[in-house]
Design goal:
By secondary structure, the chain is mostly helical. It has 4 helices and no strands.
Length: about 130
Amino acid sequence: MNTNIPSDVPQSASSVSAEDRNWATIAHLSALAGFIIPFGSILGPLIVWLMKKDASAHVADQAREALNFNITVGIGFLITLCLMLVFIGFLLFAVLAVAWLVLVIVAAVKSSDGTLYRYPFNIRFLK
């Protein structure tokens, strides 16, 4: 397993309750709120993390992971917006958008199985 996982987080999917799996899935899927609400991709996981950080170590870990990932992607989108001045940003924006969507869906599916998911690229602002 990943060494970045806190010791109080359940390590096997069978030890994670159905409610915790659901909240962890919601933490990842709440990032899709960014399609409707400005900064929703950051606000969704942040709200789940703030609500559940003391109730469940598993949910707190996955919500923190989703929040860190969406902050990282937000920074990436800002960089691609700047690069649009030299036209390479348009391609990078599309690639980043597709990668974000795919990784959020993969994370949600893994979380629904009770697996601790780690995004392949992530700056961990919250530890």
